[in-house]
Input
Amino acid sequence: KLISRAARFARGDFGEKLRGYEEQILQAIRQKQEEAEEQDAASVERIKAGYAAFLTATEEKARKIHDYAVKRREEDYAAACGAMEAAGDPQGCAAAAEMFERLGEYADCQERAAQCRAKAEQLRQEAERLAREEAERKAAARAKVRSRRKAKAKKAGIITLTTLVAAIAIFIVVIRVILPNQRLSNAQSLFESGNYEEAIDAFRALDDKKLSEEKLDECYAAIIAAAQNEENAGTAVRMLRLIPETYYTGPNHLDAVYVYADKLLENEDWDEASTLCSTYMDITGEDISQYKNYAMARAAMEVEDYVSAIDAFAAIGTLDFRDTQEQLSNTYYLFVTAGDLQISLEDAVTALEAAVELANLETTAHPAAGADFVEDAEEKIAFYTGLMDCTGTYQCYQKELTDGTITTEDVGYRVTLSFYVENGYPKLVFDCSLFHDTTVYDSVVVYTYSEPYTYNTFADNSEGGIEHIAFSSTEAMLDGDTFSNTYFFRK
Output
């Protein structure tokens, strides 16, 4: 539009140019229009051809669906007819009627559905009639049976009463005489065969409580006698456990308690033995504390509580009870050599001397003097006694050679030596804080059994530079960086 308007007003060559441009533009537009029309015509032809193919395919698919529906309806009709013919009860007829009704107006489906409904109702009514007739027949039969029973019962009334009286008499005899005798016989057989556990249960089940208690006491006495003669302590204890605790705490049963306590001690059931004795003493007031104290002492030994064991053995009051002398001797020795307590030298020597004395003491219960540990105990006694003499404070001196004469000078240093025993080993406590900031050393003294005793390398010598110390009851010598051989310590 703009070029056409400009051409109308232009003059000369410029006007001719504009009109030439206008003609070229129009020519290009007409050419694009013709091309678009040709393309539209081609698209229409393609669409028509595709639509025709679509219609053909759709018609084929619709035909197949129709054929399948016709075939399926014929099959459903045939199945409904089969169900109608096979139906022999109301439920079957109703199911066939529903199959025909689902087919709608096809063929004679509505007529056949009505026939099935009618047949179902007819069969239901027939079933109800037959049920009523069967119920009436059964009621008549029951009435006839009741009538016969009444007649027979009336006729046999006197005979039945006599029979009942006789049956009751027989029942009483069986319950009160025959069965109790049979139970007693069975229990006695179990007892005599040594089956004490089942015999106890059988005697307890007797109706005659007095007889039951007598037989149980007899059974308990037999168990105690058998257990006393049983060499296997474990077997004996299992037998004695069959007897209730109330029996042992009863009057005049102290001998049974002694047997039970002895077997428990032989079987090393220390806690159970202690409990038995405590219970018996609490209830009866009888004194069987020797058994209890022995059990407590052996239990304490097992857990390495040797102090409690010594106290419990001492509470027995005699060395002749079982192997008290031997056990107490061992306990004194173990108190020093196996206990984890820190014991003073004096207590260690006292305990070892008691152990040796008891081991060498000849008594009725311990006729052969001596024990395996005696030699070791005597060596320890001598060693510990020597260490006791070394306990104390040592003063430091320095030796000097002046004009051919050796002189000693007190340099003012002090060390303190003390000892204790742990697990049988003497340990030196070396306190040098009086001349140095070093902490107290603590380690094991080497067994030399003679002076001078040697205390080996310290675990940490970084503070004082002391590697080891030799000492006696009068002097001590420290070896290390701090002290040379010109220094010595005198007690």
In short: Confidence is low (pLDDT under 50) at residues 436-442, 446-450, 456-465. The longest helix spans residues 12-86. The longest strand covers residues 405-422. The chain has 16 helices and eight strands.
